[in-house]
Automatic annotation (TrEMBL):
<keyword id="KW-0963">Cytoplasm</keyword>
<comment type="similarity">
    <text>Belongs to the purine/pyrimidine phosphoribosyltransferase family.</text>
</comment>
<dbReference type="InterPro" id="IPR050054">
    <property type="entry name" value="UPRTase/APRTase"/>
</dbReference>
<keyword id="KW-0328">Glycosyltransferase</keyword>
<comment type="subunit">
    <text>Homodimer.</text>
</comment>
<comment type="function">
    <text>Catalyzes a salvage reaction resulting in the formation of AMP, that is energically less costly than de novo synthesis.</text>
</comment>
<dbReference type="GO" id="GO:0016208">
    <property type="term" value="F:AMP binding"/>
</dbReference>
<dbReference type="GO" id="GO:0006168">
    <property type="term" value="P:adenine salvage"/>
</dbReference>
<dbReference type="GO" id="GO:0002055">
    <property type="term" value="F:adenine binding"/>
</dbReference>
<dbReference type="InterPro" id="IPR000836">
    <property type="entry name" value="PRTase_dom"/>
</dbReference>
<dbReference type="GO" id="GO:0044209">
    <property type="term" value="P:AMP salvage"/>
</dbReference>
<keyword id="KW-0808">Transferase</keyword>
<feature type="domain" description="Phosphoribosyltransferase">
    <location>
        <begin position="33"/>
        <end position="161"/>
    </location>
</feature>
<dbReference type="GO" id="GO:0006166">
    <property type="term" value="P:purine ribonucleoside salvage"/>
</dbReference>
<protein>
    <recommendedName>
        <fullName>Adenine phosphoribosyltransferase</fullName>
        <ecNumber>2.4.2.7</ecNumber>
    </recommendedName>
</protein>
<dbReference type="GO" id="GO:0005737">
    <property type="term" value="C:cytoplasm"/>
</dbReference>
<dbReference type="InterPro" id="IPR005764">
    <property type="entry name" value="Ade_phspho_trans"/>
</dbReference>
């Protein structure tokens, strides 16, 4: 891997599935990144090295349902901080706060336990991919409802042509992504 950037190395292990889940969609499948232990380690280490630095270090990592749980939980473990799941509505057993957001067709709602973070906590918000940005924006709003500061959003893949990363940055959220699929 020494001759490749992390971006290029990881990109080689992301599978593109044409016409899924609908005709014309180029689905970026990250599951091959998780299947190969060396690739998985390179990916996790890329996040951990960034967030181990004092200026980027979170108090807690929040992961978005469902692939954000995989990355976020491992990053939290490596950093020695707590992990909180942001789930689809109806999955959390305790008192929750919720946020509804628009999808291409309809809407969706995500929830967070009301005691998941404390006011002033610096939170790293993690997902696998940024497309339209709706899920990450909803997660950011949820965490802010509880008084937390979302210091950065992190994802493996950015699909900038769908506008999500620009929308999130315009809302004031700093973003860190490992692979950019602009124009591909």
């Amino acid at each position: 891997m020494h001759d490749l950037s992390v971006n290029d190395y990881l990109r080689q292990h992301i599978r593109t599935v044409p016409d899924w889940p609908a005709p014309g969609v180029q689905f970026r499948d990250i599951t091959p990144l998780l299947q190969d232990p060396q690739v998985f380690r390179v990916m996790i280490d890329a996040f951990v090295h960034r967030y181990r630095a004092r200026e980027h270090r979170p108090d807690v990592v929040a992961g978005l349902d469902a692939r954000g749980f995989i990355i976020g939980a491992v990053v939290a473990y490596e950093l020695g901080v707590g992990f909180v799941p942001i789930r689809k509505k109806g999955k959390l057993p305790f008192t929750t706060v919720e946020e509804t957001y628009e999808l291409e067709y309809g809407s969706a709602t995500v929830e967070l336990h009301a005691d998941a973070v404390r006011a002033g906590d610096r939170v790293l918000l993690v997902d696998d991919l940024i497309a339209t940005g709706g899920t990450m924006m909803a997660g950011k709003r949820l965490l802010e409802k509880l008084g937390a500061q979302v210091m950065e959003g992190a994802a493996i893949v950015d699909l900038p042509e769908l506008g999500g990363s620009s929308r999130l940055r315009a809302s004031g959220l700093a973003l860190h992504t490992l692979v950019d699929f602009a124009g591909h």
